[in-house]
Batch of 2 targets.
Target 1
Amino acid sequence: MKNCNNCGHHFTVQDKFKMTWRPNFNHKIYCPNCGKTYYFSSKRMGLTYGLLLMLEFFLMLTANLFDYGMAEFFIVLLLILGLIVFLMPLTMKMVEEPDGLLDRQFREMEKNTKK
C-alpha cells in the first residue's frame, strides 16, 4: 500500500525509511492528512528478517569457501549492509491493523468477551 485508504495521501519512500529505522519497536505510521494509523506487516517483517539471516549465512559461507582476507570480508560486509539499509524499507508492507498471530488472537478474544 502506498496511499492512505482514508484520504489518498501518498506515503513516500522517505516516510517508510524513517519508520523502518526508528530506534524503537513502535512500527506505526500516521497519515499526516487524516491521522489514520498504519502498521508494518508482521508477516512481511518476518520474511525480511529471515532473508537477512540467510544473507548473513551466505556471507559467512562464501568467506570460508573463497578464503577472503579480513579486508575483503569487511568490504563485502559494508556493501551488504549498505544494500540492507536502502532496500529494507522497500520490502516492508503497510497494513491497517497489526497482522501478527498474537494480535489476531487478542482481537478475537476481545470480540468474544464483548458478546
Target 2
Amino acid sequence: MSQAQNLIRTLEDNSLSILSESIGDVRAHGGPTLANVSDEDLQVALYTVLLKIIDTLREKASAPSEVKTDTKTIFVAAIRDMMDYIDGQSTYTVGHTRAVTSHVVQMASRAGLSDAEIDDIETAAWIHNIGLINQSQKLAALPRTLTQDELKQARNHTVMGAEMIRPIQFLSHLVPTIRYHHSRFDGGAGTGEPAGENLPLGARLICLADAFQAMLEPRAYRSALTREQALLEVDKGAGAQFDPALVPLAHELNASL
C-alpha cells in the first residue's frame, strides 16, 4: 500500500477522533477570539476540511502517474480545491484566492526572494482564507458595508485559519503569516499585534494582494473599482495599512496584467 493510500485509510478510520481532538486544540490555541464560534460551527469547518482532503488524496492516489507525488504536494492540491469551493460560496469571491495567489507570487518574485521563499509564500497565499469556511464567508454577500462587529467577525477567520494549520507539520511555520495577513503595517490602534517589519513578509504581501484584488471585485453594496482606482487606494494606505516598500510592486503588478 502506498504512502498516500495509508494516509487515506488512517484519516478515514480516525476521522471522528481527529475531529473531536482538533476542536479542543483549536479552543486551546485560539484564545478568547474564538469564544463566539460555536462547537457546531467548528465541527462543520473541520470536518469539511477533512472530507475535502480525503477526497483529493483518494483522487490523486488512484490517478496514473509516472512521478511519485509526495504527501505535501497532494495536501496542497487538496487545499487549492477546497479554497475554490470556499470562494465559490459567494458570487462575489469566485476565483479570489487564485487571483490573490497570482499577485503574491509575482510581487514576491519582483522582491528578489529565493525560490524556496516564494514557494512558502505561494502556499500561504493559497490557504490564507481557509478560516472562511465558517459562517463569516456569508458576510461577503450582505448588500451593505459591514458594521464594526461584523467586520471583527469576518476577520476572526485569520485566527481560525491559523489554528487549523497549526497541527500540520509542514504548514505550521506559516501560522504567523496566516494569523496576521489582515494586520495593518502601522499596528492599528492598540491591537497589541505585531507591526511594521515585525509582521511576516508573507503576511504583508498577502495583505496588499488581498486588498487590491478585493477592490477589483464587485460587492453587493458597490461596483468593482478600476485598477487605477484600486491603485489610488493602495497608495493612500501606504505606511498605514500596507508596507510602503511593497506598494510599488502593486503598480508593477497592475502593468503586467
